[in-house]
Amino acid sequence: MEKEAELAPAGGERWMGQEEWPEALAAVGRADTILVGGASEAIQERVRQTRKDAEVALRLEGIPLVHYEAEKALDG
């Protein structure tokens, strides 16, 4: 169980590295399930941080680049 708990955050981190935010969140959800049995505070913190990072990235991805697009149009 401890080895499984140690590996749990890696799935989310791997998806984050590929900029696949929904997959990262799904992996973190699976990690949460594994960690219910108990894990070190450091591992739990990795999972929490990966979730926060993926959530922020997903929100930012949804923000239109209005300002950038307007400048681009003006530069012609």
Approximate strand percentage: under 5%
Q: Report the span from N to C terminus.
A: 59 Å
Report the total helices.
4
Protein structure class: mainly alpha
Overall average pLDDT: 81
Cα-based radius of gyration, to the nearest Å: 17 Å
Beta strands, count: 0
Contiguous uncertain segments of 5+ residues: none
List the helices and strands and how they pair.
Elements: H1 2-17, H2 21-35, H3 41-61, H4 66-75
Description:
With 76 residues, the protein is mainly α. It has one domain. It is built from four helices and no strands. The protein has helices at 2-17, 21-35, 41-61, 66-75. α1 packs antiparallel against α2. The longest helix has 21 residues, at 41-61. It is rod-shaped and about 55 Å long. 21% of the residues are buried.
Entry keywords:
82% helix; 4 helices; mainly alpha; single chain; 76 residues
In short, what is this structure?
The protein is built from four helices and no strands.
